[in-house]
Amino acid sequence: KAGVTQTPRYLIKTRGQQVTLSCSPISGHRSVSWYQQTPGQGLQFLFEYFSETQRNKGNFPGRFSGRQFSNSRSEMNVSTLELGDSALYLCASRRATNEKLFFGSGTQLSVL
Amino acid sequence: KNEVEQSPQNLTAQEGEFITINCSYSVGISALHWLQQHPGGGIVSLFMLSSGKKKHGRLIATINIQEKHSSLHITASHPRDSAVYICAVLVGGAQKLVFGQGTRLTINP
Question: Quick one: pLDDT at residue B40?
């Protein structure tokens, strides 16, 4: 069974640009959640989607958005990139709320 | 004060030692996760628990809901256990994951 797949693995952007990250969950998993990891702040929850609906959202500005498609694949978009958005972005999938999370390898975003 | 506090932040031990990592939280939760992150970023979920105790191989996780405390134990530690261990709580009403700052564990041969 394939794991959670995130693309791209690495990304370099400049300030002011926008970026879209992709996450393909494990087959049968309807929940996809996104996280930001930085050396200073650690892991922080961005948002969670379940069956194409955003179920929860963390404390991030509106520049961070996402969506989920009918096949459960999810995308995360960051507009007007800032230097502080440089981070490892991880997604995770699970079948249901009270089940373990399965993480992707992450997308390392560098904003110059 | 963070909602989730882990201790210690760093732990170095010799192979074979019994390891304990602690996690305390200050909010109401519906579940607690223990995660393992190796260099390079990959995160593996070790346990998800809402009460009692779970065991998988040399790893044991316990939770005391009344005391808002969880522990992760590693028996007969091995250098391959070297990683960052992260506690994360699923905050009850909001169903959001809040993370501890992580414990960096190094096991020397």
Answer: 77
Asked, as a colleague might, if the bond just before A39 is cis with ω within 30 of 0, I would say no
Q: Which of A5, A38, A54, A101 to mutate to test the interface with B (most CBs of B within 10 A)?
A: A101
Determine phi and psi for B80, rounding to 5 degrees.
-70, -10
Tokens of B31: 């579940």
What is the distance, to the nearest Å, from the Cα of residue B24 to the centroid of all Cα atoms in its chain?
10
CA A55 to chain B, closest CA, distance in angstroms equals 9
* Burial class (CB within 10 angstroms; exposed 0-12, middle 13-18, buried 19+) of B84: middle
Determine whether the interchain pair A101/B44 forms a contact, defined as Cβ–Cβ distance below 8 Å: no
**From B35, B42, B95, residue closest to A97, measured CB to CB:** B95
User: Is A101 within 8 Å of A93 (Cβ atoms)?
Assistant: yes
pLDDT 10s digits, A46-82: 999 999 999 889 999 999 999 999 999 999 999 999 9
Each residue's pLDDT tens digit, B50-105: 999 999 999 999 999 999 999 999 999 999 999 999 999 998 766 789 999 999 99
Burial of A22 (0-12, 13-18, 19+ CB in 10 A): middle
Do residues A26 and A93 make contact, with C-beta atoms less than 8 angstroms apart? yes
- What pLDDT was estimated at residue B1? 66
Cα torsion A39, A40, A44, A46 to 10°: value is: -90
Q: What are the two backbone dihedrals, phi and then psi, of residue A12, each rounded to the nearest 5 degrees?
A: -120, 125
